[in-house]
Amino acid sequence: MALEHSDVLRAAHLARLGLASQDAEAYVEDLDRILAMVDQLQQVDTDGVAPLAHPLEATQRLRADEVTESNQRERFQQVAPATEQGLYLVPRVVE
Amino acid sequence: MSSSIALHDKTLSELAQGLEAGEYTSRELTEAFLARIERLDGELNSYITLCREDALRDADAADARRAAGNAAALTGVPMAIKDIFCTEGVRTSCGSKMLDNFVAPYDATVIEKLKAEGVVILGKTNLDEFAMGSSNENSHYGAVKNPWDLSAVPGGSSGGSAAAVAAGLAPAALGTDTGGSIRQPAAFCGITGLKPTYGRVSRYGMIAYASSLDQGGPMARSAEDCARLMNVIAGADPRDSTSVVRGVPDYVEGLDYNLKGLKIGLPKEYFGEGLSEEVEASVRAAIKVFEDAGASVQEISLPHTHLAIPTYYVIAPAEASSNLSRYDGVRFGHRCKDPQDLEDLYKRTREEGFGDEVKRRIIIGTHTLSEGFFDAYYIKAQKVRRLIRQDFLDAFDQVDVLMGPAAPTPAFDLGAHKDPLSMYLQDLYTIAINLAGIPGVSVPAGLAGKRPVGLQILGPHFGEQTLLGVAHQFQQITDWHRQRPEFGQEQA
């Protein structure tokens, strides 16, 4: 499955990763070769093989729905780029 | 001092004994390592952040604890931490511009455990950005040099940890391993590095790259040192739901292992095309040592080995693209200047904050997970992953451990693999282990010219005790783990 210039721009947009159209060129060649290597997988007969999501086949451990953490908002917001009155600031979304 | 070995050449276990015997204090030890780092690391670049003040404070606390009679096994011993583990009050960069300004507000569970033991943290070591790389050349903070040969890479992604231990800038370090990132740098730098079973060591506070593969573990001068560190860091963690609830054996007790009757399998796929002659010669000589000690050797096949790299380069970037979506310029880390709108904030923040290799993997992962490609790539890779894992399960029905090279060549030159694909192919002996979730250890087994060679020993899930026992017995017979590079010796 060859990778096109438009696939790279689409994936970058989906990942919200800034990528100028001319800069995408550099990625197309590398990524196309990487995906060509990955395409070896298509030759493998996996009929009847179940996907393996967890190397120990463990299922997610559940815990009781209880509050275990104290509120440390101020402490955690110390590393935030922009906050006001305990809220994270982003550019205006709704006019 | 009673011993003729310089402090910086001693093992963690020897340093712990010296502290217990009162030969030196933790403060003296810590000051000696800090001074050595400050004198020598300008050339290696193995540390990103030095924790001088915290380390001296913790060393004093360790000395006080010992004086009060409350010392634990490793109280007062200094070590280094890969800069991927959150360390409260210390910048935790993950080798990325994205987290250059991130001072972690909490400790990773393993850091908490090391601190509770009284271990002194010297500093945070260099790595490939977000642990993506095999040479440590992808770091925002620059490449690390291999102390055995300054024109060579130390391996990656835990390259700073490996170089620091090899150069005597720390007696031991923590690393992480997603596709070989503990074992390959351990091999390249002539130290002992253990990747534990997936889930054996908590990942809470360890910055995520590929969550179904990532595992933290010890990097040190001997298997014994790795066992002592595992005794501190292993175990279930309520804050990491993927950590495994299962009893933890005493890894130090397991060192007393009898090699007689040990059944060793040699995967024929690990001795094929691409393996350098000098690595093969060292590895085969090491295996002969085990045979001479009463172990038996048989050839084994892991028939899906050639599919490990393609499988990894679907699963790891897919998980990375999801994990790295959290870096959005809103809650922590880098944020672009004067964002025009929310999309501009996300896009420019991520464009500026991530390096090339990280961007490559985010794009691949996003592409393979996107509509129309998901089944062909991700589900297919998960199916092949099961076949790769089954190879190992079948092998361990026949033998106790597998042995082979940790990497196809000794450390390569800085700049040798500018093409990403050619770099990926270097990991062919380490990557399948993460897909299968089994443990593996790399131990020093020779020198190719100036550059070390690592023997990789693999075991079944939760077989760390056996692996460390086998490695320790090898280190009772050989002294490869005692070899030190010339770097930094004259200034001792």
UniProtKB/TrEMBL annotation, chain A:
UniProt entry keywords in alphabetical sequence: ATP-binding, Ligase, Nucleotide-binding, Protein biosynthesis
Transferase found in the keyword field: no
InterPro entries, A to Z: Asp/Glu-ADT_sf_sub_c (IPR036113), GatC (IPR003837)
Gene Ontology biological-process annotations: glutaminyl-tRNAGln biosynthesis via transamidation; regulation of translational fidelity; translation
One Gene Ontology term of the molecular function aspect: glutaminyl-tRNA synthase (glutamine-hydrolyzing) activity
Record-listed E.C. numbers: 6.3.5.-
UniProt catalytic activity: L-glutamyl-tRNA(Gln) + L-glutamine + ATP + H2O = L-glutaminyl-tRNA(Gln) + L-glutamate + ADP + phosphate + H(+); L-aspartyl-tRNA(Asn) + L-glutamine + ATP + H2O = L-asparaginyl-tRNA(Asn) + L-glutamate + ADP + phosphate + 2 H(+)
HAMAP family registered for this protein in UniProt: GatC
Oligomer and partners: Heterotrimer of A, B and C subunits.
Family: Belongs to the GatC family.
Record's function text: Allows the formation of correctly charged Asn-tRNA(Asn) or Gln-tRNA(Gln) through the transamidation of misacylated Asp-tRNA(Asn) or Glu-tRNA(Gln) in organisms which lack either or both of asparaginyl-tRNA or glutaminyl-tRNA synthetases. The reaction takes place in the presence of glutamine and ATP through an activated phospho-Asp-tRNA(Asn) or phospho-Glu-tRNA(Gln).
Protein name: Aspartyl/glutamyl-tRNA(Asn/Gln) amidotransferase subunit C
Organism of derivation: Cobetia amphilecti
